[in-house]
């Protein structure tokens, strides 16, 4: 970028626009850069009598992370951790029978911990470094390079704004929580009858071959500062993940997180098989109180999940924050209205489920749609996911224990596709960046809803197929080696005792 300091009549400065140094560990809008290559403002030139000595550009200064942005991202990371433990754990735990309460808590807590460790070892590197359009490379294995021994400082990662950075280590931690919660979402689909060891083995395989490639395909790109001119723009885009290249919009994980996990859960429900007594015995939640507490923690934590995905404490973070509030509230009301019309009564379980449905649907749209569009997405998701856990579930015939596909699958699909509709500036959306060189948004008269919806749909379809294929293979491998399911006797006794030798409640 060139900058003319108008107040100095005799001053002149030259700055060769520096391409953002592409560390192989660049993340989606989190590109690592060296101090020597980062773009910086032009320094004032020497006086006229010494002008000949000022013909060379002043050394570029490295961008410095803003403490507010850094703090916001660390707080957001903490909020996402709260979503998993205790939020998701309590939400799921309250929905199962009391004899399986601790087994669900255990699977969520240990599963999350497992994925975080794998993320540090190889997950971050393969998801968020330059490789090809399906998978990244090895430059951040074991987080090497996060600390620059030569410079004596932490590597920086860019945000979605040119010249604005956060410490890359903060971005890596934030994304670790996304990987962890995504894996744990799957657990609800086969709860109450799967071996603990089988859960962990499956998560390792699925995380490696489904989550990592999907995160790379959707979110990896070279960062805004790589787009220094029109001449290099096409080359930079060609280095991004496949779905990013298509131009799909996924603010915080409609495809990567929710649809990805939901498909894996549905496949698991089929391959693990139905619970003993399913369809003959009542499988009622043992504590809707805990479920409500868990749903509330999910809602609060989701502000970090969605608004944190802006990577800065700016207007887009505020938009995502507001949409997370409003769309979720709309979905709660829609679910309750739907229940009242269908059953004559609105339930606490329905209200909690509606909240999660709204949170899921607004995730890909959070910073990509206006507030009116967010409300519409929330209302539609409430009704759609109610159908997903009732009508669609019967059609599929799977024992999806805690309705992972009905809520996360249906809600994720609805949100991902409607993002293409309500991103339109003609419908109050912020539009999308059409040119990363100038960071110019697509003009209202140039925005095509039909085109963007098709791009969104392609992303959804690829996610369904990719996760489905990986899941089938992973479950089969686990079944052949460890075995997926506990014995009927162990299942009837309850997994708390049979798998962990303890119980949640003492009489």
TrEMBL record:
**Does the record carry Lipid metabolism as a key word?**
no
State the UniProt keywords alphabetically: Ammonia transport, Membrane, Signal, Transmembrane, Transmembrane helix, Transport
Signal sequence span is 1-21
Q: What is its main location?
A: membrane
Membrane topology, as annotated: Multi-pass membrane protein
Q: Which residues cross the membrane?
A: 72-92, 104-124, 169-191, 198-222, 242-271, 283-304, 316-337, 349-367, 373-392, 404-422, 460-478
State where the protein is found: Cell membrane; Membrane
Which ranges carry the Ammonium transporter AmtB-like domain?
72-505
Q: Which InterPro entries match?
A: Ammonium/urea_transptr, Ammonium_transpt, Ammonium_transpt_CS, NH4_transpt_AmtB-like_dom
Pfam families the UniProt entry points to? Ammonium_transp (PF00909)
**What family name appears in the similarity comment?**
Belongs to the ammonia transporter channel (TC 1.A.11.2) family.
Q: Which NCBIfam families match?
A: amt
Name of this protein: Ammonium transporter
């Amino acid at each position: 970028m060139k900058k003319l300091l108008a107040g100095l009549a005799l001053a002149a400065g030259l700055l060769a626009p520096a391409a953002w140094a592409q560390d192989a560990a660049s993340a989606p809008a989190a590109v690592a850069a060296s101090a020597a290559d980062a773009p910086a403002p032009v320094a004032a030139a020497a006086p006229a009598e010494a002008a000949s000595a000022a013909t060379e550009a002043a050394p570029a200064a490295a961008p410095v992370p803003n403490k507010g942005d850094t703090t916001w991202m660390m707080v957001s990371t903490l909020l996402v951790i709260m979503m998993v433990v205790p939020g998701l754990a309590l939400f799921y735990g309250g929905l199962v029978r009391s004899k399986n309460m601790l087994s669900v808590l255990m699977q969520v807590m240990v599963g999350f911990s497992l994925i975080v460790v794998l993320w540090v070892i190889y997950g971050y590197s393969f998801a968020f470094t330059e490789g090809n359009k399906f998978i990244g490379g090895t430059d951040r294995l074991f987080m090497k390079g996060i600390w620059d021994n030569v410079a004596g400082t932490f590597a920086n990662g860019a945000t979605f704004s040119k010249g604005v950075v956060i410490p890359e280590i903060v971005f890596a931690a934030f994304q670790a929580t996304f990987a962890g919660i995504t894996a744990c979402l799957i657990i609800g689909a086969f709860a109450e009858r799967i071996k603990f060891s089988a859960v962990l083995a499956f998560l390792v395989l699925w995380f490696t071959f489904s989550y990592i490639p999907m995160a790379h395909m959707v979110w990896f790109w070279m960062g805004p500062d790589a787009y220094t001119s029109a001449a290099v723009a096409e080359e930079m885009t060609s280095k991004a993940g496949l779905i990013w290249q298509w131009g799909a919009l996924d603010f915080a994980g409609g495809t990567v997180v929710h649809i990805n996990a939901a498909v894996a859960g549905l496949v698991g429900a089929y391959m693990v098989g139905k619970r003993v007594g399913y369809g003959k015995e009542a499988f009622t939640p043992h504590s809707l109180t805990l479920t409500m507490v868990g749903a509330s923690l999910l809602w609060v934590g989701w502000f970090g999940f969605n608004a944190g995905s802006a990577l800065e404490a700016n207007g887009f973070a505020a938009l995502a924050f507001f949409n997370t509030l409003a769309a979720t509230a709309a979905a709660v009301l829609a679910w309750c209205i739907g229940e009242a019309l269908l059953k004559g009564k609105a339930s606490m379980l329905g209200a909690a489920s509606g909240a999660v449905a709204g949170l899921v649907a607004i995730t890909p749209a959070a910073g990509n749609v206006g507030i009116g569009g967010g409300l519409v997405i929330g209302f539609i998701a409430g009704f759609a996911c109610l159908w997903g856990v009732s009508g669609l579930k019967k059609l599929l015939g799977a024992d999806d224990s805690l309705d992972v596909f009905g809520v996360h699958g249906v809600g994720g699909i609805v949100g991902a596709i409607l993002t293409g509709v309500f991103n339109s500036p003609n419908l109050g959306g912020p539009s999308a960046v059409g040119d990363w060189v100038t960071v110019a948004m697509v003009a209202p008269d140039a925005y095509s809803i039909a085109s963007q919806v098709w791009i969104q749909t392609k992303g959804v379809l690829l996610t369904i197929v990719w996760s489905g294929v990986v899941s089938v293979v992973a479950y089969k491998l686990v079944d052949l080696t460890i075995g997926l399911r506990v014995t009927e006797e162990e299942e009837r006794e309850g997994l708390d005792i049979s798998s962990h030798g303890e119980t949640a409640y003492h009489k």
